Amino acid sequence: MSKAAKVLLISQPSLTRNMQMLEDELGVILFERRKNKLSFTKTGHQTVKLAKKFLKQKQKFLNDVQHFALKESTIFGGVNAPGAIFELESRIKEKGLEQHIQIEQKTNDELEKSLDDENVHFIVTDHPIKKEHILSMGLFMEQLYLSVPLTHPYATRKEIKLAELANLTMLLRSDDANKVYCSKKSGSLC
Which of 37, 100, 132, 179 has the fewest CB atoms inside 10 Å of its own CB, making it the most exposed? Predict the structure, then answer.
């Protein structure tokens, strides 16, 4: 008891009173009291589990309310590659939007789920989303260049298919797509 009281920054008698008040309020016995020993009853263990679950639900509730309020002043988006962020930031500046923009990078599947669940206002992917309730349109074209040493087998070739690069180790500035799509449910950000 004294260790618990120290952790909670209260006196031991105060902790004991609060524990008894909790038992009285719930109308159950949570603790088994023996000389110099205090332990949970089965009901006490279950109460702890339920309290932890309740606190998680409470935190989720608070997060959901705060996220909803934030949606009124923030545009949420998602991209599948960092290169699209630069283009988006440029277009947002051009439009003079006063809302804050929050962009996350995720996989295409995660982006599509976020859009379906209305956790984001728009997503930018390397392919159009073909669903009746989603509008997809071309956002920009991207030209990619491959730089290799003169001794590399691809150095003399004029054209290389992306599939040929699939198993090579390389450094990329952005993803390997050359067309980027913006998908949204409503609004006109794209």
Answer: 132
Q: Which tokens belong to 182?
A: 């913006």
**pLDDT score, position 3:** 84
Asked whether residue 187 is assigned to any structural domain, the reply reads no
Indicate which CATH number applies to the domain containing 24: 1.10.10.10
Total domains, the chain? 1
DSSP string, 23-41: HHHHTS--EEEETTEEEE-
> Both tokens of residue 133?
């309730």
- What's the pTM? 0.47
> What range defines the domain where residue 48 resides?
1-68
Q: Which of 162, 165, 164 is nearest to 177 (CA)?
A: 162
